[in-house]
Amino acid sequence: MSKSLAELRASTRTSLPERSYSLCLAQGLVAEVQALEEEAADLRTQALTADDDEGSKPPRRIGEGRNPRLAEIDARKEELFAEMREHTGELRLRGKTAGEWRRWVDAHPAREKNAVDEQAAYGMVNASDLADTLGDYAVAWNGADLGEGDWDFIANRAPAGDIKELCRLVVQMHEVPGARAPGKSQKTSLETPAT
What we know:
alpha+beta, elongated, 8 helices, four-stranded antiparallel β-sheet
């Protein structure tokens, strides 16, 4: 049985909507991994092309004749992934009350036929304005509250694609219905009873 409103008001579990996002702030490492993956793909393509040219030879066993550079690439990628994990954290976003969000949406309407607003904010708000105010929603990094200047540090190192995704998350946490209790019906008032 669910708690009473008085119990929910006293609970620390009741809060504004929240979302978390895993974010790597060492983009040079990401670029190096991408370059290695491209090199490995090229080497594999070259190996397949060479196999096609040989035609009548019997098929090789798995791993037989593998380019040694592929092993070097795999080893380096593992090193880079370990280093990336050290520079990746969970950014926690917290929403506003429904009234505050509605007032913000009304004050920052989406621009007509603007692709960025469509992509980053589902055409609901001005995505550029939302990106400029993401710091109002960012509350913690790896569980520790953000302090003075922390959001600026994060924002200046996060790639544009991640900023766009953070904008989407802010819109989602305000506009998409919250999770339902397990086993409960998700009926809406628009559904008609079966006859």
